[in-house]
Amino acid sequence: METALCLVVGCLFTVALYLLLSKHIIRMLLGVVLLGNGVNLLIFTAGRVSSIAPPLVPAGAETPLTDVANPLPQALILTAIVISFSFFAFLLVLAYRAYQDLGTDDTDQMRVAEPEDDGPPPLGY
Amino acid sequence: MAGPSDLAALKAEAMVEGALAPIDYLVVAPVAVCLLFSAVLLMLRKRIDWHPWLAIPGFLALFAIDVLLLLKVALEGPQTMMMGNWKPPFGIAFTVDMLGALFVTTAGFVGLAATIYATFSISRTERRYGFFPFLFLMMGGVSGAFLTGDVFNLYVWFEVLLIGSFGLLILGSEHEQLDGATKYCFLNLVATTLFLITISYLYGLFGTLNMADISGKAGRFEDDGALLTISVLFLIAFAMKAAAFPLNFWLPASYHTPRFVVSALFAGLLTKVGVYALIRMVLMLFPAQHADLATIIGWVAALTMLVGAFGALAQSDLRRLLNYFVIAGIGTIFAGLALTETGGAGEALATAASAATGTDGGMSAAATTGSAAPLVTGTSNLVVGLSGAVFYALHSIVVMTALYLTAGTAARIAGSSSLRGMGGLWRRAPGLAALMLVFLFAVSGLPPFSGFWPKVILVRGAFQSGLPWLGAVILLTGFLMTVASARVFALAFWRDAPEPALAGARDFGPTGQPSPLLSILPLLILAVFVVAAGVSPQWLVTLTEVAARGVVDPAAYVGSVFGGAS
After folding, report:
1. Sequence-distant (≥ 6) Cβ neighbours of residue B31 within 8 angstroms
2. Which among A33, A35, A44, A87 is the top mutation candidate for probing chain B, defined by the most B β-carbons within 10 Å of its own β-carbon?
C-alpha cells in the first residue's frame, strides 16, 4: 500500500514540477494545486498506512481496543490543506488581477518591476 | 479493560501536573501580543485614526516583552513552555534559547522603528486596507518562527508571516507591485511547500516533530543517506527563503515594489527567518550532515556575495540597489555557516575581543576583562563562524531596515528613487545625509560601525579553518559594496540636484512634509544600535557566542524541553 502511494506521490510531484516550470501563470497555478495535494499524500504515507480503524475510543473504555490509524498525520494534513487552500485562493485572485492590469499571463513579458531598458547608473557627474 | 487507575497512569505519563506560573507565559507572549493587536485593529477597521496610536504602544509592549525574554534566557538559560500541559514530545513546545531570543528581540526593535515610520508614511487609504493588522500578523509569524520548538509549528509560522507579507506587499495595487508580488508569492509558496515535504520525510523517519526530541534521536540514527537527503532539502528550502544564489531571483524582482516601510521590514526580517531556520534545522539538528554540506554552503555563500555586490554596482535605482545589498548580506551570513570543526582551534573571537578593547579605550575595559576569559578558551571554528554569522544577521536586520527607511525619506524629498534623478540632499537634509552615511558605512563593513566586527570574526574564522578564498571573497564583497555605497552617496546626496525636474518623478506617499521628529526618530533609534555595536561590540559578541555554543551543543536546549532528564 505504501509503495503504491509513494508512486502516486512521485507522479503528482513530477506533473506539478513540470507545470511550475511553465511560463504561463495559469499552468503554474495548477502546478501549485497538484504540489499541495502531493505533499498531503506524502505526509499521510510518512505516517504509515497500518490500520484503517478510526482512532476512536469506545464508550466505557480508556484506550482504543484494537490497532487504529495514526491520527497525527491527519491533523497535520488538515492544517496543510487549510493553509494551501487559502494560499491558492489568494494566488488565483492575484493572478487574475495581474492578468487584468498587466495584460499578459506570460511571466517572460511581466517586466514592469524590472524594466529591460533600464540603462547603467550614471558613471560620473 | 482499562480502568480509572490506568487512566491516571496514562495522564501522569503524558501530561504535566499543576498549572503554569504566569512568568512561564513569557515564552509565548510576543506571539500573543502580535495576534491580539492584529485582531483588535481589525475590529477597529472603521477607526483608522486610532490605528497608529494603538500600534506604537503595541510594538513598545512587544519590544519590552522581547527584552524581558532575552534577560530571562541570559540569566536562566533556555526556556520552554508546553502547550496544553502535554509532556514533550506529545504537545507542541515553544522553546527559546539565546539564538531565538536575540533574533526575536532584534525583530521587535526594528518593528518598533518601522511602526513609528509608518505612522506618517502610510496613507489613510492604505490604513483602511489593513496595513497595521497585516503588520502585526507578520510580526506574529516572525516571532513565532523564532520561538517555536516544533518543526511543523515552524512551518505554520512561516505561512502566517507569508500571508501577512502578501497583504503588505500588494498594498497599493500598482502595476509594479502586482508584477513583483506574483513572482514573490509563487516562489515563496514553492519554498514553504518544499519545507513541508521535508517535514513529512522527517516525520516518517523519526515519528516525532519536536526539535529537542529529533536532536537526541538524530545522533543515534544510522541511515546517514536519509539524513543527508533531509539536510539537503532543508538547505534548498531555506536558501530559497533566504534568497541565496542561485535561488535569489525573486528578491530583486519584488522587494523594491511595495511601500518603503514594507520593503524595510521585508529586507530586515523575512530573509533572516530563512537563515535562522537553516541554523536551527541543519546546524543544530544534523551537525554531522552539516559538516558534509559545509563546502557547498561555502560556494553558495561566495556566489551569493558576488551576485549581491555586482548586482548592486549595476543598478541605477536606489531601492533596487538596496535589494542586492540584502543578497550580499545573506551571502556573508552563509559564509559563517560554512566553517566546520576541522582545522585548528580558532582564536578569532578572542582576537576580535582584544582588538575591540583597543577601540573602546578604557571606557568599557572593566566589562571587557570581565567577559574576555571565556572567549579565549578553546573556541572552535564552528562556534566562531556561527557567532560571526549570528552577529552579522542581527546587524543586517537593523541596518537593512534603516537603509530602506532612510532611502524612503530621501526619495520623498527628492521626488525620485532613481540615482539619475536624485541629488542635492546633502544641502537640503544634512541630518538625513549624515545618517545615510552611517548606515552605508555599516552595510559596507567599515569601522566604527556594526558591520565591521562580524566581518572581522568571519574573515579570521575563514582563514583559520582553511578557507582563505572565502575570506578573500568577504573582503572583495566589502570593497565592491563600499564602491556602490560611495556612488549612492555621491550621486544622491553630494552633487547638486539635476537641473530639469525629472519627468518620471513619482509620488512616494502622502504629500506634505512629515514632522521632522517622526521622520528622523526611527532612524535615530536604529542608528543607536549600529553605533553601539560598532563602538563597543563586546556585549553583543558575548551574547552571540552563547547563542552559537547553544546551537553547537544543544544539551541545554534539550534539557529545557525534557526537564533535564533527556
Report:
1. B140, B143, B144, B147
2. A87
